[in-house]
């Protein structure tokens, strides 16, 4: 089918001199992107449109859906666990489940309802969580899958006031579309200083000597220590804390080596540290200090086998995570003398059992997870996490997001109007699907004058996914879970970038969405390749449909739309207009595009959805070949 010419007739939104300029850039909030489901539910069947509610509110992320799920029988997309959030009260509730610095609490009080409830049992946390929009924890709260399930879609963000997120089930958070943010920098120095405190205290038996003197003893010969100067310290994990420990240990005259498979060698060299293999590190060190995260790869990496490879009399410091050590193996190594001493701030189980052999061992120095516990670090962490959580609740993407791509603010600002366009195109495309084998294959083509490296399409892809899936399932989609949900539903989205000769000042010239292997309820939307194909642009900051199948069109993607393909002859607009007028349906705009084959495509914007009878009358107008009602 040949491309048609386009002519906009009265009062067509933003049509007088089309331009692809985005709007004047305001700070992007992307509220609807991170936190809301679509506020305009649609039906795949004309007769089954659902009522919907808009709870207008200053925090738009709380504009949650009370819509029913559209019938998904026409596609293979099934219901998932990412249930759309239900409506809640208007001010966000932030639950803080562990002690947080006052400065951070103040930030939170200024934004929402703050509830501090410490020492909650897992059951109590689950009982409370469905009334909370955000949860702030430290290392003592286990944010399990049960917590996300119990949240019933309301929990939008989990803030970890610290670094380690091993107490948060990230997979579950992602599946439930819950953003996880942490505060990765404010406690680095505190943890490093604590590592050095344990190193020096252990080597001079400070804790044991202190206990003995308090018990009335004076044991000068028993507590002879070892010197640090000239000894080799292996820093396992050369990240933020590890590198600060290394710097300080150098100052104590130690020879510092490090093992970190992911750290750049030049960063280590700049501190005077050689990066070595794991085997080399543990075999040459007099002291080993642990600073890696607890992951499946690092769990129990210090075990019988690795202790056996260490120098006899090695001393171990752990301010990272207890789980990186097999604690039973450490007891055996202490008993055999392979490990002379250990200084531990962290434990597999916290608090450790009172009768634990490790805890009771006289060569072990212990602190109750105090690495981050300085006044300065706690104030810093509290502010860092409070700001990250508030930002996330406002719909901004966080720089410390753990389970979502980090998108710099300037990129967000630029992409905002295209993000809206992407969702509208997804939403429109799915409404054109009449049946087939389900939606499994979607192709997205971005036409852009930009170098591919300068165009981050993750947001756009996520929004297309949201537009396609949300109207036809119970899923709630955001940047966090878009790829996961798409995969879960068997929806494959392939992306292609086509270079066009337009202004590289704008990130995208147009976005095309094609759905393959489905039947269309509006044949004109099917391209020569057999796919449902639509294309849109941003014009004056608003999303516009510019191509449908092989028809060129120019339609503002907003509100309710009737598309008709008809014989191109006089009187057609009047006939349809009369039907709508007589049935009290207000027309907001009308636009007609012509084809070379005496066909025309008429787009009619209407204020509300016409009833079934009105739509049937339109369908019966002679020479209207097909029509479809779309809700955008
Ligand atoms: N005891 C406490 O109160 C505190 C504990 N921590 C813990 O300290 C650890 C380090 O924290 P940061 O330095 O801030 O994190 P980071 O992410 O800056 O550094 C971790 C480093 O470990 C490296 N790494 C990953 N896998 C490794 C492996 N298999 N072997 C060796 N290195 C590996 C990474 O490449 C990275 O450089 C974390 O586990 C954190 O939870 C942090 C702050 C306070
Ligand atoms: O930041 C970290 O990883 C820590 O381990 C600090 O834990 P905390 O916040 O003191 O419970």
Describe this structure in words.
It is built from 19 helices and 23 strands. It has 632 residues and is an alpha/beta fold. The strands form 4 sheets. The chain has a 7-stranded parallel β-sheet with strand order 9-8-7-10-11-12-13, sandwiched between helices. Bound molecules: 1,4-dihydronicotinamide adenine dinucleotide (NAI) and 2-oxo-3-(phosphonooxy)propanoic acid. 2-oxo-3-(phosphonooxy)propanoic acid is lined by residues 138-140, 161-164, 187, 369, 371-373.
Please supply descriptive tags for the structure shown above:
single chain, 632 residues, six-stranded mixed sheet, 19 helices, 23 strands, 29% helix, binds 1,4-dihydronicotinamide adenine dinucleotide, binds 2-oxo-3-(phosphonooxy)propanoic acid
Number of helices, where a helix is a run of at least 4 consecutive DSSP H or I residues: 19
How large a portion of the residues is in β-strands, by DSSP E?
15-25%
The helix content, as a percent range, equals 25-40%
Report the major sheet. Answer: 7 strands, parallel
Rounded average pLDDT: 84
Rg over CA atoms: 31 Å
Bound molecules: 1,4-dihydronicotinamide adenine dinucleotide, 2-oxo-3-(phosphonooxy)propanoic acid
Instruction: Kindly name the structural category.
Output: alpha/beta
Count of beta strands: 23
Overall body shape = elongated
Q: Give the neighbour order of strands across the main sheet.
A: 9-8-7-10-11-12-13
* Poorly predicted sequence stretches spanning 5 or more consecutive residues: 1-33, 35-88
Query: How far from one another are the termini?
Result: 26 Å
